[in-house]
## 1
Amino acid sequence: MQENLFSVRMRASKNGPHEQGGKHISGGEHISTYGNLKNAVNDLLEKALSHSRGNPDFMQIQFELINDPIKSLRPLHTGTNTVVSVDEGQTVARKLLEESGVPRESIQKAYEQVAEYSELRGAILVDVSSGVRMDDRSNRGVRVSRMDWRAANFAKWADHYKIPRGQKVKEALTLATKVSAHPATVAELCWSDDPEYTTGYVASKKLGYQRITNLKDYGDERGCRIFFVDGLSDLQSYIRYLEKQPIFVQWREENDARIN
Amino acid sequence: MQENLFSVRMRASKNGPHEQGGKHISGGEHISTYGNLKNAVNDLLEKALSHSRGNPDFMQIQFELINDPIKSLRPLHTGTNTVVSVDEGQTVARKLLEESGVPRESIQKAYEQVAEYSELRGAILVDVSSGVRMDDRSNRGVRVSRMDWRAANFAKWADHYKIPRGQKVKEALTLATKVSAHPATVAELCWSDDPEYTTGYVASKKLGYQRITNLKDYGDERGCRIFFVDGLSDLQSYIRYLEKQPIFVQWREENDARIN
């Protein structure tokens, strides 16, 4: 019998809970065994209490048993695009989105909405052909949940590719891998709402996870997370996948070797 | 300026969250400074993961800033009624309720409902003159929240009265003190849903906190928490007091000395 696994999630905000208009401070996800729940909770608690967006005055951590089978996904291939300015970074981002299959007009339209949605804690879904927002989650957005990448496996991956073993990279690549694995996802555009973190990325099945070293000014608390989606017959089942389908990112050296 | 204080609360259940019909396992409350939040969260997490009602598969811990001024309440005076059987214990309980001002017929009526509400995680409110349940919280009951008793002060109190420094006593007396302090509360009847804990109590302004050493059989998971309430012009404001008014139990030796 397989060991029970639990989805552990945290959200923290300031000036009240999110649903009462509080400012989003931090969120986080783990998938944990019962025996490791204390570590998982404390890891997320530490994250909530030490975020550079500020000290939260509301936080919620919950765990719940995962009943669905957990899918295993290989991490996206990664690349780094070193740029010297935000402008250059954003130009690269647009180019990568276009190469991933997002029409230029839709990219332009999505960018016009970026400022408006920069305070959301979740992602917005944008139709790839019209550039119009498709989800109905107004001030909240869609939060991708039930995903993790075991530390030991991540460390092996990071060492192999000579990438520093940072939490940010692990979390971002886990999310991008889950999102990208759905057939309806064409591309993702993301930069953090952490004022101290200016790196962002474009991710897609075609290009993998393309880190861009500068997508916003240092100190800027406005984040961005847009999923460009195509051919969505069933928006609710897509959102259900993002929110509920449990996945582990799992890297195997052999697999990557075979491809390269 | 006074230091910010946070209400920290936990609830844990099995076979899903409470709101989806899960079995209540454990709940808990703290009032904490920001600096002590990690301890408070871990204390409640430990409680959730080690309860004799079983291992939870759902748990939620949250903290939020308390904006209202915190009331300080003196602990109820305590007495212990040693009994040799559940029957004797229940007879004592009924007698103490009657002495507290609950008519015998209402006690009888309330007891007829005890089995029905033994799976609730919160309390039920019973009208003292009719014996009829008054709250509208069906399967949930009313959960008393935002209360604590600082460990050092509790220890002083416990040592003074030669009472073991147990968590159960601290939690029960904190709750009973808060409930009893409201003018509309006539009496409380309580025994734990912890199968290993057979002691219960009757509490009232008149008699204080009267522990009764045996109110149910060992191994029995059915608990009871009834507040007998009188002259309630505004049920919602009474429930708001129980759920939202923050209180600290605070004992001062001088106060008790002056009274005795």
## 2
Amino acid sequence: MYIDGTIRAYVDDASAGVPTPGGGSIAALAGALGMSMACMSANFTVGKKKFKDVEREVRGHLDACLKARDELLRLMDEDTQAYAGVSAAYGMPRETSEQKSARRAAIQKALVVAMDAPLRAVRMCRESLRVLSGLADVANPNLISDVGVAAVLAEAALRAAKLNVEINLKFLKDEELVAATRSEIEEAAREAAENARSTLETVVAAIGGTM
Amino acid sequence: MYIDGTIRAYVDDASAGVPTPGGGSIAALAGALGMSMACMSANFTVGKKKFKDVEREVRGHLDACLKARDELLRLMDEDTQAYAGVSAAYGMPRETSEQKSARRAAIQKALVVAMDAPLRAVRMCRESLRVLSGLADVANPNLISDVGVAAVLAEAALRAAKLNVEINLKFLKDEELVAATRSEIEEAAREAAENARSTLETVVAAIGGTM
């Protein structure tokens, strides 16, 4: 489990000429990093007299951000495990026509499994950006740039995870599943971009920055 | 040094109600994660007969990506150290007018120091996106989605680091430095967005995805 390993070990393995950790795992971790900034800004808001009017609301956001962060950290590790199935399927014998057909079926099955972690990362980041858009309005203004960092990274994580769904879709033959998944991730990307933009507009207005 | 600590410890500290690791550190790590995907795709390209025509070019990109990755990992840790100076300056006594003026000067000095790590992260990501735009044209096509992940994360890291420069600029009084820095980071963001877009266009065309 990479979560209990060092940052150096993870980054070294990710950089090497071996398949895992790959883009799906990296995307999930980037999303978790973003959500940790959302948690920090919420943690600097809850329990402070100055923000007691929004205490309940921020606590709700904090719970949601912590759950998203932890789910994304799980997906970071899950993605590396799922990929092993794809490699194994591609490695199956293909001499007889029975072997060829068994291999083809195993590859299709493994691709669906491999797509699962990045697809769940897309969903988690989409959901997270809804939360962030609410958090930006109530978080401690001293920490507002961190809500912005969260929004930038959650959207980027979604887009990176989407690329990892798409690379699997390219080889999937189940047209119905391909169409439904494409439609879902494209809609997720659109919604996420909108929420990220509105969150960032709030942030840059507060810090006098630019989009 | 967080680089030799676990991912869990870093994310937990980042999420907590303490100032560090903050957005500048997180941004640098997100950039390093992106560049690790660029290294992976280059490592799956160099030394292979099939890609021997671009061997020298990809080796050059690989060196640049490794250097960027390692510099961003250093900035992840440096940013947490620089922030301590800002906290210390704000904590200085402010009873007499001498104390007030010493405190003000110390804060201004600390802000310039605190801005340094995210500003260098902005520069590193800008430079990295130039490299990625070249890498996308020559990397092993099987790893092209990982070049896309690298571009998405490098641009997001730049934007996140930029927010952390801007939050310091907000309190800086040296107007000349403020203007020069704003101009640099806005130009960096524009150039990075262009390079990220062109890299992603190459990637999505190859995998049949959408922007």
